[in-house]
Amino acid sequence: MVADGDGVEPARVPAVLLPVREALPVLTRARADASGHRAAVFWGAVAVEALHLVARGLLLPGLSETDHDAWRAGPLDARDTERIRHLAAAMPPEAHAVPVDGAGPPRLPDPERLVRAFLDAVADTLPRTPAATLVTDGPAYAAAEPRQLPELHSWAADVAAGHDTGVRLSLRVEVRDLPADSGDASPAFRAVPQVHSVSDPALVADTAEVWSGAVGDAFGTRARMDTLLALRRAARTWPPLAPLLSAAVPEAVDLADEEITELLGAGTRALAGAGVDVHWPRELARDLTTRAEVGPPDGEPVPGAASEKGGTSFGEGGPSFLSADALLAFDWWFALGGEQLTRDELDRLAEANRPVVRLRDRWVLVDPEEVRRARARQDSRYCSAR
Length: 386
Hints:
By secondary structure, this protein is α+β, with helices and mostly antiparallel strands. It is built from 12 helices and 15 strands. Helix 1 (about 20-30) crosses helix 2 (about 40-55) and helix 3 packs across helix 4.
């Protein structure tokens, strides 16, 4: 479409048709060409973005509208989505050019739809290499020619749920019965599912709000069904969430101490692999950190430090700090929330054998197994001559 007086009209322009694999090097070079056409420069920038997404492994398998196997770019996080929208907003008019059939009024195609289609085309092209069929043990999603696979409909829908269709799920862990001045109480935990819009990452609501209709159609007309699909995938990954599937309203699920302990480690990692983030209570200190310190054994002077007689320990006949004859101690340094722990405090955390413990006038949330490993490391402190 070109400008024509006060409006636009279709115009014929020369075009070179290239497969995506051959077009990529042309476009990426055009992006850096000062004399390049602005449409070519724009699509070169989109090509670089597509290569970045593929390099990060953001590939989702699915089916095309004709039931052929197809890769697409995803799952995309909020920053990816925002970057793509900024790219689309910068699309020059010439970069909108697509073949037209003459039917209907002339309209520019939606820029974000064009950008997404190109990103998906790159994602579908690059994994299909001659060696791919050897890795997949079959032609599906690997051979250069797409295969029609209508029998994979339900599987493809399950993969798409929470990634580029439907909703995304996260868990907000809440703690109750947490007194401010007593270490004898038994706090109770529960996990509250939260629903996130795939198209608008800023749109978040509790599942109870989705069921009550408080959010209207903000998450689409299939919000309940999409949420149940996301919950089913999450429960398959982490079974303690299964009671949510049979609840009239999947508002929350109570978690026992051992389930919280699991969620602090392997559970969170498994859910992250399924695209489910876990948010912990802010009022609980957490994040046990470990640091190794290498230096002279306790009571030994540090080479280069001031001695009681004045001067330094260098030149007094002793080995330097990093000499082959120096005796070094290897210590583990532990901190919780940035504050160093004493040995007594580490013992208290380990012996409590609970995920939540009262320490230094506040409640802390730690994985008991991680604390036991930390104490074992401290017990393994040793000295060695270099």
